[in-house]
Design brief:
This protein is α/β, with parallel strands linked by helices. It has three domains: 3-87 and 175-182, Periplasmic binding protein-like II (D-Maltodextrin-Binding Protein, domain 2); 91-165, D-Maltodextrin-Binding Protein, domain 2; 192-276, ACT domain (Alpha-Beta Plaits, 2-Layer Sandwich), CATH 3.30.70.260. It contains eight helices and 16 strands. The protein has helices at 14-25, 39-47, 67-75, 109-114, 116-122, 134-140, 206-215, 251-259; strands at residues 3-8, 31-36, 53-60, 64-65, 80-88, 91-95, 104-107, 127-130, 147-152, 162-165, 175-182, 192-199, 220-228, 236-243, 263-272, 274-276. The strands form three sheets. Strands 1, 2, 3, 4, 5, 11 and 16 form a seven-stranded mixed β-sheet that branches. α1 links the parallel β1 and β2. α2 (39-47) packs parallel to α3 (67-75). The protein is globular and about 60 Å long. It starts with a strand and ends with a strand.
Length: 279
């Protein structure tokens, strides 16, 4: 039976490439890829069981955490991370016109941010227009001589478009970590475990106590990020990735025992393998 996998479309996006690679690594049965118009829609497809799995970006090496993904994971504790993949990001600039004629540049907000220095130096007067995805931007500029789009080198259908510049990302080592989400958690060899928590109160030392509780287990936190709770100003939710060792059996149970007295709410997103794709 086919396994439907939602991702941020349309076709030709970095998310599609990540979805194909993650489905292969996870050995999903006959994967069928379902492009969605927004990250929130991708996650809700999985949460509402309109598909079996979903692939979303969770962190970029230049711009940090993908806030929509983090907020949606907190809102859907029934979803688990089954696998992560670090994908190199190399942006190209496409258009039907000449670079001297470009007055508007379209792309996903993360892509625009990752190329901001190049755009400032080479197209300082161009208006930057955010889109839902890089592949949507490619589609929207067709037929225009004054519009350009930032997208992947792997765009399948350029038609009348031509590549004006490559690579245009400001940081050579730019990469994005994508995760495969599923409604079922499985026991598997893992390199990371991820969780999020909110504290009982915004009191002196409250966050430090929680971090010390994690450190007391001899665990290294590879990422910590805060997001507003959206309930009141100054109240935050904390997202943490923890590196796992060979001797971390029942680690989530141990973490829960340590953190539960200190936290108002704790969500474990699962333990999972992480793989990096080279250029």
């Amino acid at each position: 039976m086919p396994t439907q996998v939602a991702y941020l479309g349309p076709k030709g996006s970095y998310a599609e490439k990540a979805a194909i690679l993650l489905a292969t690594l996870e050995n999903l049965d006959a994967p069928e890829f379902l492009p969605c118009k927004s990250l929130r829609s991708v996650i809700e497809h999985a949460a509402n069981k309109h598909c079996e799995a979903a692939v979303v970006p969770i962190e970029n090496s230049v711009e940090g955490g993908v806030t929509t993904t983090l907020d949606s994971l907190w809102a859907h504790p029934e979803l688990f991370i089954r696998r992560a993949l670090v994908l190199p990001i190399r942006h190209a600039l496409y258009s039907s016109g000449l670079i001297t004629d470009i007055s508007e540049v379209l792309s996903h907000p993360q892509a625009l941010a990752q190329c901001s220095e190049w755009l400032n130096n080479n197209l300082p007067n161009a208006v930057l227009l955010p889109t839902n995805s890089t592949s949507e931007a490619i589609r929207m500029i067709r037929g225009s001589k004054f519009r350009a789009a930032i997208g992947s080198k792997e765009v399948k259908e350029l038609q009348d478009l031509k590549e004006l510049a490559y690579p245009i990302n400001d940081i050579e080592g730019n990469c994005t970590r994508f995760v495969l989400l599923h409604t079922q958690e499985i026991d598997q060899p893992s390199q990371f475990t991820s969780l999020a928590f909110s504290l009982h109160s915004n009191a002196p030392g409250a966050l430090l106590n929680a971090l010390n509780a994690i450190a007391s287990l001899g665990l290294n936190m590879s990422r910590i990020e805060s997001r507003p709770s959206k309930r009141e100003l100054g109240e935050y939710t904390f997202f943490i990735d923890i590196e796992l060792k060979n001797d971390t059996k029942d680690i989530n149970k141990k973490l829960k025992e340590k953190l539960e007295p200190l936290c108002e709410n704790i969500i474990f997103f699962g333990s999972y393998p992480n793989q990096k794709i080279e250029d």
